[in-house]
């Protein structure tokens, strides 16, 4: 039984980790930290956990995290990097679901996140936790930078084309929408239901923090520079990311076959039949990315990829559990077999 | 391994049964019937089941239902009653999730459902599938009338008061709201999102079919006549029933203690702490009823009960699985331990 | 042209007043105040007003409110009572859309609002702004306490029965739901879309501040004490209140005729045909209350009233404009003829 | 007073025309037709019109449309083309809100709409009703093909760039989302709230009927061929289109200034300040298109345009009224000054 701790348990990644781990028979959650909620029962904050989770939130210092086998960071960006080195030194494995260990370039990180990185020397050790790309490196790794939600959907959608060298990597376009849980559990007026229901809006059209992360992954796959336009949007739903990806083929390939081949053995990527339009609800609560590929003009150079994930599962907590499974040598799918909630 | 069939698999009860049974290790679904969708893959209709369910819909006659150990009816009202007798005679256990076997009085059924009952002689054998009331009778039963969604929430909410003889049973009031999945997966203009989003409306304020079912249950508990006003409403959400119940105490009791005592050993009823307001999302996808009790004026006679369920789980498919477990002597909670999806 | 000021312009009542008054040809808005947003353009906060409203928010002290003909208070409870006396003394008419001048009893107000009333001597002068009850008193009044949203729907729904002395006023029950805009434009985690979408919950089941206000109005109509159980709920929609009211007839009357007679000449109350179920979307954005009456058992004593309003219009800003029209001797319907937005 | 008829009054364009025309003081609606609802009161179908519209639906043949000054077609595609010639011959002006008169090329129309065009000889006379492009031609026109919803937002978003010859017209990308009212008021299972709430999905990714319409407009503006990738999506809201447009500049221009100059005198196009993200709710119920322009890399060639409209107003009924105003020599903004409903 792996003993895990969760740092920052009052956000959506935290409660989703608790939900998933409640039915994971190889893991025991021994501590959930929160500065503000310390002393409060976890199920008072999250009533879905009544009868399932008997823990109280504890202050980070009192949590005994260094005695865990593994720790998830479900904290705001810029927190994990201060605490991770000591835990690693204590022999604890870390899966950071925040952005602190996703970028390899500390200067790039500092530019996008508005602060210096606290432990740039650890970035080289961190493995980017997209198992579909880095599974081998993840086995036995000690520190994982768990991918962002948009980066998961967009990279999985572009990878088969980019790895095949079949598209113009200077002309990629990604338009993606997210449910409001992607913005976190925050006291923000612009997120209240009366502002955001019956409403769609783009945000960060001038540049979103997930852009360098996506570019880093696609450039590794391409073996060269990638130029990507990326616009995220908020839509009035709770969960779900829908990424609509546009590329131009540089040679004629069977795109459907390329996707099917690329993901044939992947337990958490589902390439749908030709002509499909994946729905975000088809992955609600499940650790899976569903993808469909279209060529509007079969003779043309345009290819359109549609990719959906649940931002809190394959885009955050589920992928973190998947990474933990790989890290610790458990079956990769363990605890992750729940079926999406539809309707 | 119990081999089960599902009759009428293209509705929400059908897909929910498939979702729940996919992770139930004591049950194998061997047939899913549908007249209209026969020959079509189940996961083409319900993409959340891709990778989980390999079945095709079959025509009811070709399904070999008589060779199943148990059959769920997830059909419109008035269908099961024509097929159930033959299955019972073939030794198949039946859990009817439609309304055909809920009322004991065939004449009452005919009046509310607008047709004669096809097998009134079987009604006496049918056990009303509310395990919190009828657990003993359910063990070994052959035919279960699975309760309606509103009746489940409203009966569980009133029962501790009525059984204790502590309220005026001539003055019960139930105002309840339901998510739109409760209206079924139907081609109805009034159910489309553009009509029903950002909208609340009552319906059947003059009399809803669930009223005689609720009354039958409460009268059995009261040992006498019950007068109940019941108004259901549709609210713009997918899942969830919230029942708000009003009663007048006839003697002063500790209502919180009464509820806690009544449901202490029930795995699927959660009496929340005093002052609580249960949220429908706290039971989304989970087989549980959460209840809170209030006395607005501690010296007054008024008592208010708030009860929430997921209409598709504890209000339909989940309760049906719970009943199957009891019927077949399996652990009652088997396959039903998923945590509610929050957010 | 009536020159009006709006105090507290950054909330939903404020923006709704600006929307309604933008097409009211008898009123000019000359000042909108906000402590926090002073100096900011109004249409930067509310983009629907781009091209329509050229004002900036000003600090309250700099607004010159004493030179307005009339001032709306769209402030949190407990603010208007400090500023209203000086404005009245300056000859300004005041419509307070907050709760400060709704209750006639200062002690009762203090108990429910958790603070002493700052100008109890003005309460006697304040006219409760439900024109369907107090139209005569409103003509020429100087200070109006604009009704709360629930109280508007619930009083309009009960009044014909209570005024006729036809129901047991000791046994009234009101279960009502509200869209999230009723909770205001606030930085509250429990109001964000990811918490409140696909979710229904009751709140304040132990006692809501609108209860004494409703009781005051109904007791005036009844000429005696009224006992009312009232439970409010939040449902996942932006606008709309749906009140479901239960009463017991003490004598047999034609309830449909009673409602039609009571509201025959009311421009903003619509009694629907027998058997109707009013929908909140049918009043979205419009200053109207639609009502339907049901007797589930035509021989029984139960009567059910369904009443819907837009909480921001007939439940707040629209009714405030209606009151201003009456106060200032304008046509009561002026500026209020927009049709509800459906779908 | 212009006397108008509405053909096909039971859909969303029909009810929206009725809503808008109810407060248009230059127009009187004298007939609303419906085959299925003939004899039924219009306000029984659309309760928001109670007290505002006293008409009954009439059968098309009995409507006396030839005696109207103007007729709106709010019919499914393929209906208007059969009835328009006779009305034109009778001297009636026609605004067709369906797709029958949008494309100039009958063969192209037949290919995308799956049937032969019934009056190809009238296509040359039809004016494409985008006043921002064709105002002069609309003055005094007899037949208007009212633009589609996506085409309105996408053309208005691309036009300043394309007209300026500043972008690569072979590389345009449009990703757009629509509220569910854009799919019409139809008995379709896939549109019911339980299927479409909390859900985003693309559709027609292989080619949507609005593509040739958009291309026709942009090619006229470009004076040459245009290649556009266009993917529409359904999001869980009632109203609103959000178009996210990607282009590559072929020369360095001040895009903000170009947009402001292009639309300076347009009453119904709002170019927002640099850095803005228009929200669909900011145009809810209003006849306006709000646009923002971004260059993610100020030195790069990428330009991103965000454009929002209410699909039922500027994308359908509102633009139809705007066209009628122009056609009949009324003030273009008459009856269209309502402020968007926010929240």
Characterise the protein shown here.
The structure is a homotetramer of 343-residue chains. Chain A is an alpha/beta fold and 343 residues long. Chain A folds into two domains: 2-146 and 316-327, Rossmann fold, CATH 3.40.50; 150-309, Dihydrodipicolinate Reductase, domain 2, CATH 3.30.360.10. Chain A is built from ten helices and 14 strands. Chain A has helices at residues 12-22, 42-45, 80-89, 106-113, 131-138, 149-163, 193-196, 210-222, 255-263, 317-327, and strands at residues 2-7, 27-33, 57-58, 70-73, 93-96, 127-128, 143-145, 172-178, 201-202, 228-234, 241-248, 269-271, 289-294, 302-309. In chain A, the strands form two sheets. The first copy, chain A, has a seven-stranded parallel β-sheet with strand order 3-2-1-4-5-7-6, sandwiched between helices. The first copy, chain A, starts with a strand and ends in a 16-residue tail after the last helix. In chain A, 60% of the residues are buried. Chains in contact: A-B, A-C, A-D, B-C, B-D, C-D. Chain C binds chain D through residues 12, 15, 19, 22-23, 46-52, 181, 185, 197-198, 238-239, 270, 272, 278-279, 281-286, 288, 290, 312, 337-343, and chain D through 12, 15, 19, 22-23, 46-52, 181, 185, 197-198, 238-239, 270, 272, 278-279, 281-286, 288, 290, 312, 337-343.
How would you briefly describe this protein structure?
With 343 residues, chain A is α/β, with parallel strands linked by helices. Helices cover 27% and strands 20% of the residues of chain A.
């Amino acid at each position: 039984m792996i003993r895990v701790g969760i740092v920052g348990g009052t956000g959506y990644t935290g409660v989703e980790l608790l939900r998933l781990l409640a039915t994971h028979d190889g893991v025991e959650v021994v501590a959930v930290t929160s500065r503000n909620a310390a002393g409060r029962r976890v199920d008072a904050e999250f009533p879905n956990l009544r009868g399932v989770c008997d823990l109280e939130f504890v202050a980070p210092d009192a949590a005994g995290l260094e005695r865990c086998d593994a720790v998830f960071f479900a904290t705001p960006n810029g927190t994990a990097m201060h605490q991770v080195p000591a835990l690693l030194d204590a022999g604890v494995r870390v899966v950071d679901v925040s952005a602190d260990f996703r970028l390899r370039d500390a200067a790039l990180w500092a530019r996008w996140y508005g602060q210096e990185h606290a432990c740039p020397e650890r970035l080289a050790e961190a493995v980017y936790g997209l198992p579909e790309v880095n599974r081998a490196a993840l086995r036995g790794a000690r520190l994982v930078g768990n991918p962002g939600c948009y980066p998961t959907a967009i990279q999985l959608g572009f990878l088969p084309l980019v790895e095949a060298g079949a598209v113009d990597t200077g002309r990629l376009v990604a338009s993606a929408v997210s449910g409001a849980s992607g913005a976190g559990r925050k006291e923000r007026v612009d997120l209240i239901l009366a502002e955001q229901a019956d409403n769609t809006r783009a945000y960060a059209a001038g540049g979103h923090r997930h852009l360098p992360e996506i570019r880093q992954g696609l450039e590794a796959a391409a073996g060269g520079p990638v130029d990507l336009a990326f616009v995220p949007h908020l839509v009035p739903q709770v969960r779900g990311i829908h990424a609509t990806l546009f590329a131009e083929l540089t040679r004629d390939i069977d795109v459907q076959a390329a996707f099917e081949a690329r993901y044939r053995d992947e337990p958490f990527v589902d390439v749908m039949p030709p002509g499909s339009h994946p729905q975000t609800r088809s992955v609600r609560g499940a650790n899976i990315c569903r993808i469909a590929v279209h060529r509007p003009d079969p003779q043309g150079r345009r290819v359109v990829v549609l990719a959906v994930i649940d931002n809190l599962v394959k885009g955050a907590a589920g992928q973190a559990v998947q990474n933990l499974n790989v890290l610790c040598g458990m079956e990769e799918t363990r605890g992750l077999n729940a079926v999406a909630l539809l309707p």
